[in-house]
Design brief:
Layout (H helix, E strand, L loop, with lengths): L8 E4 L1 H5 L9 H13 L4 E6 L12 H7 L7 E5 L3 H8 L5 E7 L2 H8 L3 H17 L3 E7 L3 E2 L3 E2 L2 H13 L4 E6 L6 H11 L8 E5 L6 H11 L3 E4 L19 H10 L8 H15 L6 H11 L1
Parallel strand pairs: 1-2, 1-10, 2-3, 3-4, 4-5, 5-8, 8-9, 9-10
Antiparallel strand pairs: 6-7
The chain binds 3-hydroxy-3-methylglutaryl-coenzyme A and magnesium ion (MG).
The site of magnesium ion has 6 residues, from loops.
Length: about 300
């Protein structure tokens, strides 16, 4: 474990990945308040919304309102998902700091999620990446189903290497190794990272673990062992993907921060303020938090 990073950068993807799957409309004002609470807790990167078809993902239809409503803090990076030029054109006037193109290591998931093959997705992303760079906007690539797919089952690491190579080829600056349905275990996740690391440096890869099978923290530790220091999580463990039925939310940011701080790894995040942000959104959604750390700390506050 001699390669463990001393600091970690977390992107809270709760406002986007977390809320995209909510059945009931969540008012824009609540999403804006969530972003404000996350940045107040010390998050330096927040994935705010996506510019996708409102017929496919109605919850993100208020993207302009949310982006216009947030008060930006200097030093915080606000990212948004843009699957095609239409999405990019919608996003650009809202001045995101980073756009995210999202592809999949499995063909079936690519078809279900973005209605095209992996090769076609890269053709769609290429002009988006070029336009973003010309506008001075950073570009990230999310790689879904890097260990398992809801339609194809196990996904071999070679598929991750193939996708990462395509992303690199069109100029995507950094990539997320995503376990979309939370089926991964440490060695499989390490193999997926190693495949991505054939194309990207250790500073350009991030872990994005859904916690369906309760493996996300173990997988985080496995990625830390490789030196990975960028992670994505959702406050209060919000979320899921509409095209990955049964998959639960991302690992809770509260749980991730507790793990990292406990290992002496700096995140710059105030865990107490983060727990409060989680309480806020859980109350708005009318349900308790699945974060074990938040529940434990709240019980301690009460006693
Ligand atoms: P399509 O049907 O292939 O696109 O959708 P199309 O070009 O044929 O257009 C069809 C209609 O969609 C047209 O409207 C377009 O104008 C409209 P109509 O004429 O029928 O009224 N359209 C758009 N509208 C708004 N914004 C756009 C856009 N593009 C076309 N950007 C598309 C392709 C990708 C848009 C569609 O499949 C879609 O919106 N999919 C939703 C994908 C999504 O948001 N998934 C969840 C996020 S990914 C995720 O959660 C995984 C991640 O967290 C990592 C992980 O965990 O794995 C990132
Ligand atoms: Mg996700």
């Amino acid at each position: 474990m001699n390669q463990l990073p001393t600091k970690v950068r977390i992107i809270d993807v709760g406002p986007r990945d977390g809320l995209q799957n909510e059945k009931q409309p969540v008012p824009a004002a609540i999403k804006i308040e969530l972003v404000h609470r996350l940045q107040a807790a010390g998050l330096k990167e927040i994935e705010v919304t996506s510019y996708v078809s409102p017929k496919w993902v109605p919850q993100m239809a208020d993207n302009h309102e949310v982006m216009a409503g947030i008060t930006r803090l200097p030093g915080v990076r606000y990212s948004v998902l843009t699957p095609n030029m239409k999405g990019f054109e919608g996003a650009v006037s809202d001045k995101p700091d980073e756009i995210v193109v999202f592809g999949a290591a499995s063909e079936a998931f690519s078809q279900k999620n973005i209605n095209c093959s992996i090769a076609e997705s890269i053709e769609r992303f290429a002009p988006v990446v070029a336009a973003a760079k010309a506008a001075g906007i950073a570009v990230r690539g999310a790689m879904s189903c890097t260990v398992g797919c809801p339609y194809e089952g196990d996904v071999p690491a070679e598929r991750v290497g193939y996708l990462a190579g395509l992303m690199k080829g069109i100029g995507v600056e950094r990539v997320d190794v995503a376990d979309t349905i939370g089926v991964g275990t440490p060695r499989k996740v390490q193999a997926a990272f190693e495949a991505a690391l054939a194309h990207y440096s250790i500073d350009e890869v991030a872990g994005h673990f859904h916690d369906t099978y309760g493996q996300a923290l173990s997988n985080t530790l496995a990625a830390l062992e490789l030196g990975v220091w960028n992670y994505q999580s959702s406050v209060s463990g919000l979320g899921g993907c509409p095209y990955a039925k049964g998959a639960t939310g991302n690992v809770a940011t509260e749980d991730l921060v507790y793990l990292l701080h406990g290992m002496g790894i700096d995140t710059g995040i105030d865990l107490g303020a983060l727990v409060d942000a989680g309480v806020f959104i859980s109350e708005q959604l009318g349900r308790g938090t699945p974060s074990r750390v938040a529940r434990a700390l709240l019980a301690k506050r009460d006693s």
